[in-house]
Amino acid sequence: MASVSSSSLLNKAVRQQYMGLCQGGKCQVTYIWVDGTGEGLRNKTRTLDSEPTCIEEIPEWNFDGSSTYQAEGSNSDMYLIPVRMFRDPFTLDPNKLVLCEVLKYNRLPAETNHRHSCNQVMQQVKEHCLWFGMEQEYTLLGVDGHPFSWPSKGFPAPQGPYYCGVGANHAYGRDVVECHYKACLYAGIQICGTNAEVMPSQWEFQVGPCKGIEMGDHLWVARFLLHRVCEDFGVVATLDPKPITGNWNGAGCHTNVSTQQMREEEGLKYIELAIEKLGKKHKRHIEVYDPRGGTDNMRRLTGLHETSSINDFSAGVANRGASIRIPRQVGKDKRGYFEDRRPAANCDPYTVTMAIAQTCLLDPTTADMKNL
């Protein structure tokens, strides 16, 4: 049995006594941002005199960037720019969670603020009514880094009975999954489903469909909620693309893509055209589909365990071993969407969706991939 944190063992009944106290009309607003690693999330909370009704009513704030890998100590103040507001499922109404962009001292985007450039691209392609849906896989660990509920020595039974499984011997950590699902719904995240994955202690939730920049916003906050729920249970959710070596599945963030033309009659030809364009930019996409230029995905995209080879581009109907999968129903209906199976679980959804929009929808002579 994996170890849990000491904080999770504190008396939650005592905590609830305080959480039920009146706030006197005040509102707690928790600011959330991506730190300098491009993977970690940070947050801090302030009091507003009343409940904000829109994002414009939430003021800018600042933080110490030297403590988040984003600035030097001699010039450490960074700006937090609120961009999207959600309900807070932990402290409840009227309190809010607010996703923020990070700006440097000169008010230019921080190096890991990929939302800024992604939003510019999404504005350029807005006439295409671009929809995304992302399937976030993750693995539950104890605070000692050992997979949750795995034997302390050795391994569980081989893969096979765990995908969408039920029962204490097949599903490890369902409480975390169901609480996260409820928290997302309460907050207003566009979560659309969840399931146990192929490796024991591995799960997935899906977010979407989301239009343009909303995809990255909703997935980042859904990740924040996941980590926060895991904190309450005393376990850890890792987005490592290959948390366990050997004959175990890795973790991806499969990205489903659809434009207005793809959704209309005979839209399959536009899906095939987009896939052709993606094939020509395979190497460049691999570079931005994990935060380390493709080195994380090298451990995952081996051609085994329902993945394609990182070195080759492929596509096929209902083929989970391909780079791009066209769902069987889409092939039958000849319209709908396609699934890019290459993004790693720890990808930045802004860089992924931006790259897809640029490659598929912007003229290759004017598309600027330098911002990825």
From TrEMBL:
The keyword Ligase is annotated on this UniProt entry? yes
Question: What sequence ranges are listed for the domain GS catalytic?
Answer: 114-372
Q: Which UniProt keywords apply?
A: ATP-binding, Cytoplasm, Ligase, Nucleotide-binding
Catalytic function, reaction form: L-glutamate + NH4(+) + ATP = L-glutamine + ADP + phosphate + H(+)
MF terms (GO), sorted A to Z: ATP binding; glutamine synthetase activity
Q: Quote the InterPro entries the UniProt record gives.
A: Gln_synt_N, Gln_synt_N_sf, Gln_synth/guanido_kin_cat_dom, Gln_synth_cat_dom, Gln_synth_gly_rich_site, Gln_synth_N_conserv_site, Glutamine_Synthetase
* One annotated GO biological process: glutamine biosynthetic process
Question: What Enzyme Commission number(s) appear in the record?
Answer: 6.3.1.2
Coiled-coil ranges per UniProt: none
Q: List, alphabetically, the SMART domains matched.
A: Gln-synt_C
Q: Which Gene3D superfamilies match?
A: Glutamine synthetase, N-terminal domain, Glutamine synthetase/guanido kinase, catalytic domain
Q: Could you tell me the superkingdom of the organism this chain comes from?
A: Eukaryota
Q: Which PROSITE patterns match?
A: GLNA_1, GLNA_ATP, GS_BETA_GRASP, GS_CATALYTIC
What Gene Ontology cellular component terms go with this record? cytoplasm
Its subcellular locations are:
Cytoplasm
Task: Give the GS beta-grasp domain ranges.
Answer: 27-107
Similarity section: Belongs to the glutamine synthetase family.
Protein name in UniProt: Glutamine synthetase
Q: Which organism is it from?
A: Poecilia formosa (Amazon molly)
